[in-house]
Each structure stands twice: as structure tokens, then as C-alpha cells.
Design brief:
The complex is a heterodimer of chains A (294) and B (407).
Chain A (H helix, E strand, L loop, with lengths): L1 H31 L6 H19 L3 H22 L9 H23 L14 E4 L2 E4 H23 L1 H11 L1 H6 L4 H26 L7 H15 L4 H21 L5 H15 L17
Helix pairs in contact in A: 1-5, 1-8, 1-9, 1-10, 2-3, 2-4, 2-8, 2-9, 3-8, 5-6, 5-8, 5-10, 6-8, 9-10, 10-11
Chain B lengths: L1 H18 L9 E2 L2 E8 L6 H20 L3 E3 L2 E11 L4 H13 L4 E3 L4 H14 L2 E4 L15 E3 L5 H14 L6 E7 L2 H16 L3 E8 L7 H7 L6 E5 L2 H14 L6 E4 L6 H7 L7 E4 L8 E2 L3 E2 H12 L5 H20 L4 H9 L2 E2 L6 E2 L12 E6 L2 E6 L17
Helix pairs in contact in B: 2-11, 3-4, 5-6, 8-9, 11-12
Classes of the chains: A mainly alpha (294), B alpha/beta (407).
Amino acid sequence: MEQFLQATINGLLQGGLYALVGVGFSLVWGVIHVVNIAHGAFVILGAYVAWKLDGAFGIDPLLGLVVAAVLLFVIGYAVQRGVINLVINAPIWMTLLLTFGLELLLVNGLILIFTGDYRSIATSYASGGLSFGDVRIPYGRLLAFGLAVLLTGLLAMFMSRSKTGQAINATGMDRVTARLMGINARHIYALTFAISAALAGAAGTMVGIVGTFNPVDAGVFTLRSFVIAVLGGLGNMWGALAGGIVLGLVEAWSGQYLSGTLIHAIGFGVLILVLIVRPTGLLGRPYSEARAET
Amino acid sequence: MTRRFVILVCCALLLAGACKGSEGEEAGAQGSTLQFGAALSLTGQLSREGILTKDGYEYCKQVVNEEGGVEVGDKTYDLDITYQDDKSTPDVAAQLVDQMNDDNVKFILGPYGSSSTEAASAVVERNGQLMISSAGADDTIYEKGYQNTFGVLSPASEYLATIVKAVSDIAQPKPKTVAILSADDGFSKTAAEGGAAQAEEEGMEVVATEFFAEGSTDVSAQLTKVKPLNPDLILGSVHLEEGVAIIKQSEELGINPAGGFGETVAPPTPDFIETLGPAAEYTLGSSQWTPETEGEDELFGTAEDYAEGFEAAFGDTPEYHNAEATAACLAMILAIEDAGSLEPEAVRESLANLDTESFFGPIKFDENGKNIYKPMQVIQIQDGKPVTVWPSAEGELKWPAPPFDER
């Protein structure tokens, strides 16, 4: 029983981290129809920013997280406004190619600057934890989980309550009509992409605190984000959280009761299963039907 | 139309024939230069290790040329090594080795890692080239019946077994139970099997062998399974990222084996200590080579001489990746000099019969081309540094390791 509880906690906390990684990816895919292959590279970039700030200036990674998020926000805005907006009307393959190229650039740039060595952001608190009998809850992972829930909540609120959030949703549903209503679509697209990149930066910092990273891991994070976004339902913030947690739990339980080498197979198996039973994802509504354009 | 096509093909074939090296020239030699080739991971995921390997080869070249070059019969050659970047991809390593054959480079120094070495070994065999692997440890590379690939390093099956031997030999109290956590790639699995077999031979009980996907940074499921079994020793058959995860998550989950932790490839690398900080302390690791390794040869002297010379040349203290690369180059040179010929077949014969001491330990190959005669070194992280504790001792083994929260 204790083992089951520990496995469940491990899965839940790991799932929170996954959700934090995937939520921005889901936002960009769901709202501005860009499958951002460079998302994992943004995550890694965020990890390096916090790692560098910690190593060079002794800045606590939790403060570094804010810096990483702000920096990634700026980079994200510039990338969308200056580069991706140029091909936003082209078929999805063009944006796919473009972000793929961006990923190659970022990953190899990071290897050039920081080498392919594994890094980790060392803190005095992340390895400690709460003990309940034999069951432990590590602080670092708890923090990542809490942050995931908090940011997802804030983002969901921003999207449904604020005027800008509604403008983002409106642009996602029908760009032409949104423009007729006086929404600056270019700015809205760039803003959405920037928010996504900022979330990736924050997620990267947490990845660095609880685990290890190197530039080549970018692909793994993009792939996970893909699973999480589709699992939860595209463009749905709470869906991404649910997708991340489901993936985390499935991996933890299958590692515990089946073989640890099967976790990827089982993770993708669950994705296929969900797509068969609920093609719109766990919490997805047939949102795409509301769009005039696809 | 068809005729024109046939003529075109004939021309292309003629051209290709003309491009091949002139038949009169000896294999691997251009004028007074002896040419070795190496496909290395200079970029990509394994670039760090690839560059360490390259530096090891370069140091060999430098010393050999300073000492007057390679004597083959009554001729003396300067040594030169061409490098190509395999981008950390095994297929590319194999292609590059094939291209080297087109350029008449018959003597190949191995790429970094078991996967690339395995891919290259098939090409080497087909082309009649000769390869000495410096970093391909997986036993399966040598069990395909290939004649032209030799490995200068101890095979994968020794990586974990060495730690078990050391613990059994010098740890007090001796651990009674051991749990093995392993990545699921070929190299790690072979090492895990070797470790389990050795533990049973030493009278320890293997209470669990758990596998996780290669490259995992989350091994909490496996640790949670192992925790209630209370093993005295937790052994990891891993690469760096998984090795770091085992220690980091054991600390998170409050797992403190009565004896301590031992891991294969991770602990001797500087990143392990840098990444884990104080949690890295007391971890045992196995290494192909340390400056305390016993043995000596004419070119490089003792292991300590090697370390000094290398540091003078490159400014860094050598890691085992450097040393194993230099040792592969050394073995090739000794075999060529013994053979007195640059014919790959003759050099292959003399490699098969090579039996020598070196700064890297004994170099001698069994019938499969594995150097099973060289012992590995066991290190322990002490005060932020890897210290050799077995078989020759630079420092005392600190045993048992205290729990994480008392460090």
C-alpha cells in the first residue's frame, strides 16, 4: 500500500512537471495553429538561463525562474512577430519546417556555448522532503507541481476573464472576423507565442532544479509536450494539466507494476486509447468546429 | 538511348576506378606518412566524450612523432590521424569509416561509444580494414566472430563486476544484499549481468534487478520498488544522467542503503560531482584507468608519467577517455612495428599475438579481440574528487556511507 501511495505521489508530482512543460505548447497549437517543434528547446534555454544566473551570480533559481520567463517572453514575442508571422498563412507544413529549423539552431547553438554536458541547478532545499511514515514528498517536485497548478490556473483565468485573453481566443476562432473587430492579429499571435515561451522558460528552470538537462534533451520535451497537448485537448489549459498528470501517473504505475523499460510504450498506448475513445482529448471540446478557418 | 546510358555508366565506372588509390602504394601510408583514421563524435550528444577521445589520439600522435615516428621494417614513418565528425550518430560513423577505406586508410582508431563502434566494426570487417576500439566496451561487439576489431579497454561485463569485487575485498562490514538498477541499452544490460553474476559468486544476494529506459532522468519507480527490500548496496549500471538521477532521487525518497552506492560510468566524470554536490560523496565508481594504474611502456612511461605529460600538452589532467584512446593508438603502433609491415593482414596477426604492459595496464587480446586481462580501477568520491581505492589504493575506502541527511 505504501509503495502504491509513493508511486502515485511520484507520478502526480512528475505529472505536474510534465504539465508545466506542455501547457505552453498546447496554447500555441490550439490557438494559433503552430506546432512549435522548438518548444523543447525553449524549455532547455530556460533551464540554462537559470543555471547560468545561479552559477555566475549566485541568484536563487526561483528568482532565476522569473528572469528566465521574462527573457523567454521577449524572445518568443520577437520570434513570432519577426519570423513565424511571415509564414502564418502558409500550410501548416511551413510553420512545422520553420520551427524545426529554429529548434536545430537553438539546440546546436546551446551545444556550442554550453557543450553537451549534463547540468543541474543545485539547491539546498530541492532534495529535502516531507515524510509520512515511509512515504516521502520531495520539496523540489512539490514546488514544480504547485507552480504548474498555479500557472495553469492563472493562464486559464487570463484567457477567459481578461480582454486580451478573449482577444486571443477570438483570433484563434476566426482571425478575419477578429481583425474586423479591431484586434491586431499580429500582436495577438506574438503575445500568445510569448506567453508560451515564458511558460517553457519557467518549466525549464524547474526541470533544472529537480533533474538534469542538456541541449539534446530538447526533442524529448517537445515529444512529451505533444503527447500532453493531444491527451488533454488542444488549447485547453486545464486539459494540459490533466494530460500531464495522466501521463505522469501512467508512467509511475507502469514503472512500478510492469517493466520500467515499457513506460514510453505504455504512455503512447494511453494516448492512442484516449484518441480512439475521445478524439478531442480528455477535456477538449469540439473547439475546432467553432473555427471558420482551419 | 539505352546505348548512351550504357556508355555513360561505363564512363562513370571508369572514373570511379581511376579515383581509387594507386595499387602500388602500401596500405595506410602516403610517402613517409603513416595514416590512421578516426570517426569521432565531435558534435552532438556525445561531443564531450568524442573530443576527449580525440585529445587522447592527438597526444599519442604527438609523443610518437617526438620519439622519431613509427619504424616499419627499415623505414620510418611520421604518424598522422585524420578525423571525421560522426555527429554522435552510429550510422554516420560507419559511413565515414567506409569513406576512409576509399581513401586507402586501413588503420582505424575506434569511435566513441559502443553503438558507433558496433556500427563501424561491420564496415571494417567487410573492407579488410583494422580497428582498435578505445571506447566500445559492449561485449556483443566482439562476439560476432569479426576478425578485424580489437578492444583495448576492459569489456562491459567488467564494469559493475569490478565494483562488486572491490567491495567484497575491502569493505567492512561486507554487504550481504545488493540491488541492481540498470538502463536498458546493450552496454548497461551486459554490465548489469556481469555485476549480478559476480555478486552471487561473492556470496551476496541479489534482491532485485530493475531496468529503466535509457536516458531516463526519473527512476523513482525503480527506487520505490527497491526501498522496502533494504539492500546493503545499490548498484547502478548507467550513464551519467541516469546515474545522477539514482543518487538525486534516493536522497529525495530517503533511501539510504546500509553500505552505499556504486555506479558504472557516471562517478568518475567531473559532471557527476558538479551536478550532485555533497550527495555525490561516498559513491563508488569503476574506471578504465586512473593515474594509479599499474604498468609501464617505453613510449608513455607509467600512468603517472602519462598524466603529467598529457597535462603539459593539453593543460587538463587526463580522464580515462583520454587514456583509453591513447592506449588504442599505442596498441596499433606496437602491432605495426612488430609486424614490420603495413599489410593489414600481417598487422592483424601481430595484434592477435600482442602481449605487453603499458601505462594503461596489460594489453593482450583473447580470441574474440577483447582485452580481458586488464583490471579496472574502482574509485570513490571523497571531498569532491574521485579517489582510487582498488586494486591499487590512492586512499582508503570510506565505508559505510552515512545517510544523506547526516553528510
